[in-house]
Amino acid sequence: MSEPTGQADALADLAARAVVDALALPEGAHEQAAATLLVDLDAGTVVFANLLATQLAPDVRLPAPLAEWARAAGLRTQDGLGLDEGLRTLATIAREAPSRGIQVSAERATGDSALREALWVVGVPLAGAPAPLAHQALVVLLPLRSRTAAAAMPDLGTDVHARAAVASSVSFTITDPTQPGDPIVWVNPAFERVTGYRAEDVIGTNCRFLQGPDTDREVVARIRAALEARTTVADTLLNYRADGTPFWNQVVISPVLDADGHVTHHVGIQADVTERVQALLAREAALDEARVSSRRLHLLAEVSQTLAEHLDYTDAVRALAQVAVPRLASWGFVAVVDERGRFDGLHIVAADPVDAIDAAELERADLGWLTRSPRIAHALASPAGHVPVASPVDVASLAARTTPRQLALLHRLGLGSALVVPLRARDGVLGVLVLVVRDRHDLLQENVITAAHLGHRAGVGLDNVRLYQREREAAVTLQRSLLPELPEIPGLDVAAAYVPALDRAQVGGDWFDVLPLPDGAVGLAVGDVVGHDLHAAASMGQLRSVLRSYAWSGQDAGTVVARLDELVQGLGMADIATCVYLRLEGSTLRYTRAGHPPPFVRTADGVVRELDGALTTPVGVPVPGRPVVEAAVDLPPGAVLVVYTDGLLERRSRPLRRGIAELRATLEAMPDGMDARGICDHLVATLAGGEHEDDVCVLVVRRDAEPD
C-alpha cells in the first residue's frame, strides 16, 4: 500500500518513543533517557532525532547525512577513530554491525570534568515493517555517566542486545479511518506474538476485539476522544489475548496526515507491560496495606490512650464514640448495658457537624429503639469469636420499633449499611459500637476489619474504667464510713469535706474529728497518715480512736499529741502521720501541730492569721526527750477556723509553701457572711479544683457572732 507524505515522521516519532520506553539502562549506568535517531538506510541520512540526540548535534538540520551528524556530535570509538569514516561508522552500526553495539564517546563533556561523554551505541533495523520503515533503522545512544559503567558495558553487550531486540519487536498496527469502523490494514509479526491473533484473522476488523470484561471503559473513551480530535494518544489498558488471558497493553496511537492535513491512517504501537504493571500494582497494594495498617494501629492506639485518660465511665463512653465513629462511618454510636442487660449509656456522633443536632436529639430520646433492634440484641448475645458483618439497614421494620420522631431522625442521619460490633470485655459483652453509612456500598472492608479489632480493645478499655470506678466508689464508701458524723454544737457552725484523689482507687489516711468534751470544751483534729491503701486507712482509724480517748480525758492539746505519739511508737500501731489537735475552750483555742501544715483563723473583720506555732515532729518519728509544746490564740465571735491536709494545697506544679500563701489570699478575698459549709466548698473548689493528686480533707469551724 502507498504511504502518504508525512507518515515517516509520524512513525519515526512513535518508534523512537517506544524504544526509549523499552530500553531500560543496564545496572550501573546513569538512569537517563537515551538519545534516539531514525535513519534512512538506503539514503544514509538521519531523518529524525529526539531531544537528547538534538543536544548532541544542535547545529545539524535534518535530514542530514549520517557522517555529517556523527562528525557534528564528535562521535569516536575507544581507539579515537571518528564514526564518520573508516570501517566502523554510524551507518554500519545502524545496520546492526556489531549486533550488540559498541562503546563510543561524544564531544560534549560534563560540567565537572574535561572527559568526553561515554555512550553505548546500538542499531535496531526495522526490517519487516511497511514502507518506508522497512528501509529504516533506529540508532540508540545510551549514556554512561561513570567509568565503572563504561568499563562494564562490553560485558553487558548481550543484555543490551536483548533489550534492543525487544525494542525492535514492538507490536505495530496500522488502521484506515477512511473505511467504516477504522479497520486494521496491517500488523507486524510482533503483534501476532503479543496478542496470539494471526494477521489474516484481524485484518479488516477494529482493534476493539482486544477488549474484555475488565477493560477500563474510561481509558477506551479517552483513546476514542483523542482519535476524534486527531491527536496522538498514549495510555495503558487491560486487553485480552486470543486464548482469553489478560495482559496490560501500553498503547500509543498517532494519526498520519497527508499533505492537505487529512487523516489517512492511524499508526499504533503496543507493548506488553504486564510485568511492569503487575509490579506497580503489587507495590501500590503493599503501600495501601501498609497505610491501612498504619491508620488502623494509630486509631487503636488513640482509642486505648483516650480510654486510659478517662476515669469516669460515662465520659469514657462518650470519648470512644467521638474518636471512633467519625473515622469509620457517616454516623454511629456507642451504647453500653448494665449487669442486667439494660441500656444505661448512649452517645451518638455524626461525622458531619450539620447532623450534630439530630444526633443529640436522638440520643436524648427513649432508648426503646435500641432494645427492640434484633441486630443489637444479637451482638449483645454473641459468643467469643463472633465476626461482625456489614449489611443494609432493614428500613422497612424500623417503623414498628421507633416513634415517628425517632424514625424521622434516623432517616435524616442516613440509613444505608450498618455494622454492629460487640464491645467484648473479660466476662462478656458490655455494649455495642454501631457504625452507619448513608450508602449501602460505602462501608469499606478495611473499616469493618478495623471496627472488629476496635470492638475487643475498646471493650477491655471500658471494662477497666468500669472496674476502676466500682473500686473507687467502694474505697470512698469505706473511707467515709471511717469518718465521723459532724455533731451539732451550740455556738459553732461546723462543716467538713473529704475528697478522694482522682487518680487512685485506694482508700487513704486523711481524717478529721469534732468531739464535744465532757468539760464543755470542743476537741478538733485533722490528720494524714502516710500512704494510700488499706493499711493507711486502718492506721487512721486507730489514731483517731486513740486521740479521742486522750482528748476525752480533758488533757491539754500538747499532752494529747505527746501521749498519742508515745502509744503509737510503743505499740507500732501506725506509720508516720501528721496531725493537728485543737482544744476550743470558750474563745480560747489551744493547739499542737505534729508535723502538720498550719491552720488559719479569719476574724470577722477579714484579718487572716496563720497558726504556725506549737510545731513538733510527726507522729511515729522517735525523738528522745520530746517536749510538750502548745500554743494558744483567741477565736472571737464571728471568726472562722480552717484546718486541712496538704492535699488541698500541694501539687507537682505548686509546692506546699506556695499553696499556703494561696490559701491565705483566698481567705482574705473571701466574701463576708458565708457560713461554714459555703466556706468549705469555696476553698475546695478554688484550691483543689480539677484533678488533684492527693486526698483532700478540710474542716471549717465558725463561731457564731454575738447578738447585738
In short:
With 708 residues, the protein is α+β, with helices and mostly antiparallel strands.
How are the SSEs placed, and which strands pair?
Elements: H1 7-22, E1 35-40, E2 45-49, H2 51-56, E3 64-65, H3 66-73, E4 76-77, H4 90-94, E5 102-109, E6 116-125, E7 136-144, H5 147-152, H6 157-168, E8 171-175, E9 184-187, H7 189-195, H8 199-202, H9 217-228, E10 233-240, E11 246-257, E12 263-272, H10 274-309, H11 313-328, E13 331-337, E14 343-350, H12 356-364, H13 368-371, H14 374-380, E15 391-392, H15 404-413, E16 417-424, E17 429-437, H16 445-482, E18 492-499, E19 510-516, E20 522-529, H17 534-552, H18 557-571, E21 577-585, E22 588-594, E23 600-602, E24 608-610, E25 615-616, E26 631-634, E27 640-644, H19 656-669, H20 676-687, E28 696-703
Parallel strand pairs: 22-25
Antiparallel strand pairs: 1-2, 1-7, 2-3, 4-5, 5-6, 6-7, 8-9, 8-12, 10-11, 11-12, 13-14, 13-17, 15-16, 16-17, 18-28, 19-20, 20-21, 21-22, 22-26, 23-24, 23-27, 27-28
Helix pairs in contact: 1-6, 10-11, 10-16, 11-16, 12-15, 17-18
